[in-house]
Amino acid sequence: ASVTLVDDAFVTVARATTDGEGRFTLTLPDPGSYSIVVEGEGFASLTHGPWVLAPGDTLRTTLDARRLTPIEEVEAAAREHLLRQRAARLAERLPPGLVKGRVVDEAGRPVETAEVRLDAGTGADQVAVTDREGRFLFQEVPAGSWHVTVSHLTYLTLEGDLEVRPGRGHEVQATMAIDALPIEGVTVKVRSRNWMENQRGIAERRRIGIGEFIDGEEIERRGQFSLAELLRGRPGVRVFGPGIRPESLQLRRCTPMVFKDGVPFDMALGFGEPILFDVELVEVYRGPSELPPEFNTGRNNCAIAFWTKRGT
């Protein structure tokens, strides 16, 4: 059965589930007046209390649950639906809470770029990403029960539950363990900080929606490993020279500067050189209006950037 501790405003403060013997334990966050609500499938809901508890108090109580008749089960389901609607309306009127925290590894070092997700089961998730100090902040969190998930590619995912009280601040400390188990079929790669910064830049350019992105799967599927082969026939692209080793390529009459893993790359052997092996992404920017600052050297108005799987 589910056992819920509520305050005088009927806001959830803590939850527990009964064990095989029907026992449960709840810990109070603060002294005050509280009631207990017990709910179990096939049983009538029980509400006991309120009890006024002072610091250090321990309350032991026995609750007798009664089985529902079939008609009562239908009525209970209808009441539960109405109560959930009432609770949702009440939560909308309550001041939101604040949730902040820090994510560290087992050595106490901050974990940057970890994703912290709050899920209330309504589809309106809140998501934050940790900064260089491993810190995150949610400023407007509606009161109620939230499921917390902390995830990162390098670490084991953490999960837990959080009761957000109206108008209160809540602090979460999460310690993540390295996920480097030798699982068959999974390759664990350690990436440099430069690679992480490059990935953020790629994600931001994709979000803005400028340029063209060609992923490694498409390159391998088409079996085209030179820029000339890959871009021939695409809008705004002109390839000069016959065969697979042409000497030049233009994007809307602009000769592009080429970048490999974010660094200018010498195309002395021509655009027919098979340089796209081990590549996971190609970016194409056809003119000044598309050209991102990171690929603008002041001497070019267009650019092609390709990223290898090994990164920088």
Q: Strands, helices and their partners?
A:
Layout: E1 2-6, E2 12-17, E3 32-39, E4 46-53, H1 70-93, E5 97-105, E6 115-119, E7 126-129, E8 135-141, E9 144-152, E10 155-164, E11 169-176, H2 193-208, E12 212-215, H3 216-222, H4 227-231, E13 237-240, E14 248-251, E15 257-260, E16 263-264, E17 279-285, E18 303-308
Parallel strand pairs: 5-11, 15-18
Antiparallel strand pairs: 1-2, 1-3, 3-4, 5-8, 6-7, 6-9, 9-10, 12-17, 13-14, 15-16, 17-18
Question: What descriptive keywords fit this protein?
Answer:
single chain; 312 residues; elongated; 35% strand; alpha+beta; five-stranded mixed beta sheet; 4 helices
Count every beta strand, where a strand is a DSSP E run of 2 or more residues.
Answer: 18
CA-based shape? elongated
Distance between the termini: 54 Å
Task: Give me the oligomer status.
Answer: single chain
- Spatially, the strands of the biggest sheet line up as 12-17-18-15-16
* Uncertain segments: 186-190
**Count of helical segments?**
4
Structural class category: alpha+beta
Largest sheet: 5 strands, mixed
Order of helices and strands: EEEEHEEEEEEEHEHHEEEEEE
The proportion of strand residues reads 35-45%
- Please compute the radius of gyration using only Cα atoms: 29 Å
Q: How helix-rich are the residues, as a percent range?
A: 10-25%
What integer is the average pLDDT? 80
What does this structure look like?
This protein has 4 helices and 18 strands. By secondary structure, it is an alpha+beta fold. It is elongated, with a radius of gyration of 29 Å. Mean pLDDT is 80; it is low at 186-190.
